[in-house]
Amino acid sequence: MIVNLLNNNHSYSIQKIKKINEWVPGKLFSITITKDKNFFFKAGQFTRIGVGINNDTNNIIWRAYSMVNSPNEDYLEFYYVIVPNGKFSRILSKLKFDQTLFVRRQSFGFLTIDQFQKNTDNLWLMATGTGISSYISILKDKKTWDRFKKIILVHSVREIKELTYQEIINKIKIEQSTIGNILTYVPITTKENTECVLHERLPIIIENKRLEEMAKETLDCRCSSVMLCGNPEMLLDVRKILIEKGFTTKNSDNSKNLVMENYW
Ligand SMILES: Cc1cc2nc3c(=O)[nH]c(=O)nc-3n(C[C@H](O)[C@H](O)[C@H](O)COP(=O)(O)OP(=O)(O)OC[C@H]3O[C@@H](n4cnc5c(N)ncnc54)[C@H](O)[C@@H]3O)c2cc1C
């Protein structure tokens, strides 16, 4: 009863942790929590989640996290990194099954396919690290595939073990191929050398065209839409190169074909 009253009166709802997945011990986790029935979002958006410092609900700290699940699933999933000495993620790492998380009732952000007014041949989703969160949501959403028949998912991480969500990516790839859609997955590991995986930073492999070779797709402002998500330094460098190649973040003549989301 008290929880229900609190749930109805605040700008946030109170949710319970139902599953915690440790992808890379001590570093990369995902968390599945209950979802308020009135919480809506578009694939690619984020919300703010809150934790009470020392379990004190008068002292909640908030951080932005992208939803990993698709909008029509009846739970919320977040994928996160534990930042060394990070105020919020350190508390998050200690939470256990059935404990409480606060979730803002609003969703935010423009890393969504409706930002692109024009239809293009392909959609490039480029992420560093946890930036892949929003793209899993986008790839799970049927609306994405109604608009784009060819999608290239580029995930740049430091080490191979950080190439997470591969099972889901593979499942989507197989499902979509049965209806003629193509999902191409291009992993990049910048600190570990392995065969068949690219190792250089994204700006370099875009400029020297290795990324297009690997994906067997064209990255061209006349036929591609691009999303960038994650490390702000990477976003800045890639943005510069793409703008030089004719991409635009502006929507004059409905021509926007580049959208991005900085994680810090
Ligand atoms: C729109 C948006 C969406 C976000 N979505 C996610 C998400 O889905 N998953 C997620 O883990 N984080 C996400 N973040 C970052 C998140 O909000 C927090 O900043 C992060 O969890 C660290 O909080 P903290 O208090 O532990 O660290 P802080 O004390 O706030 O330390 C911040 C420092 O940690 C580093 N950092 C922050 N976030 C990351 C990250 N994701 N990967 C690597 N280094 C990082 C940066 O160097 C930054 O300066 C998002 C941020 C924004 C703005």
From TrEMBL:
<dbReference type="InterPro" id="IPR033892">
    <property type="entry name" value="FNR_bac"/>
</dbReference>
<dbReference type="InterPro" id="IPR001433">
    <property type="entry name" value="OxRdtase_FAD/NAD-bd"/>
</dbReference>
<dbReference type="Pfam" id="PF00175">
    <property type="entry name" value="NAD_binding_1"/>
</dbReference>
<dbReference type="InterPro" id="IPR051930">
    <property type="entry name" value="FNR_type-1"/>
</dbReference>
<dbReference type="InterPro" id="IPR039261">
    <property type="entry name" value="FNR_nucleotide-bd"/>
</dbReference>
<dbReference type="GO" id="GO:0004324">
    <property type="term" value="F:ferredoxin-NADP+ reductase activity"/>
</dbReference>
<feature type="domain" description="FAD-binding FR-type">
    <location>
        <begin position="7"/>
        <end position="114"/>
    </location>
</feature>
<keyword id="KW-0547">Nucleotide-binding</keyword>
<protein>
    <recommendedName>
        <fullName>ferredoxin--NADP(+) reductase</fullName>
        <ecNumber>1.18.1.2</ecNumber>
    </recommendedName>
</protein>
<dbReference type="Pfam" id="PF00970">
    <property type="entry name" value="FAD_binding_6"/>
</dbReference>
<dbReference type="GO" id="GO:0042167">
    <property type="term" value="P:heme catabolic process"/>
</dbReference>
<keyword id="KW-0560">Oxidoreductase</keyword>
<comment type="similarity">
    <text>Belongs to the ferredoxin--NADP reductase type 1 family.</text>
</comment>
<dbReference type="InterPro" id="IPR017927">
    <property type="entry name" value="FAD-bd_FR_type"/>
</dbReference>
<dbReference type="GO" id="GO:0000166">
    <property type="term" value="F:nucleotide binding"/>
</dbReference>
<dbReference type="InterPro" id="IPR008333">
    <property type="entry name" value="Cbr1-like_FAD-bd_dom"/>
</dbReference>
<dbReference type="GO" id="GO:0034599">
    <property type="term" value="P:cellular response to oxidative stress"/>
</dbReference>
<dbReference type="InterPro" id="IPR017938">
    <property type="entry name" value="Riboflavin_synthase-like_b-brl"/>
</dbReference>
